[in-house]
Amino acid sequence: MGARPAIPPKRTDAPVACPDWVNANRHLVENLWARLKEWRAVATRYKQTALSFLGVLCLAASAD
Asked: Most exposed of 9, 12, 15, 39 (fewest Cβ within 10 Å)?
């Protein structure tokens, strides 16, 4: 699908050509998900509909 990894390579791997801002944004997204998963409703909402999950995500993100 044309996606490229944004994870920095190990020293033994070939370097991946990606700008520094990609790695900085990846860090921000990971921090956001870590904070959202503190909400039990977000962490255990995998059985519900996509619309209700999106609503809980919006509520959690705005309250945080």
From this structure: 12
Residue 23: count other Cβ atoms within 10 Å of its Cβ: 12
Tally of structural domains, the chain: 1
pLDDT in tens, 18-63: 777 877 788 888 888 888 778 777 777 766 788 887 888 888 888 7
pTM of the model: 0.48
The answer to whether 50 and 31 have CB atoms below 8 angstroms apart is: no
Is residue 4 domain-resident?
Answer: no
Q: What are phi and psi of 13, to 5 degrees?
A: -85, 160
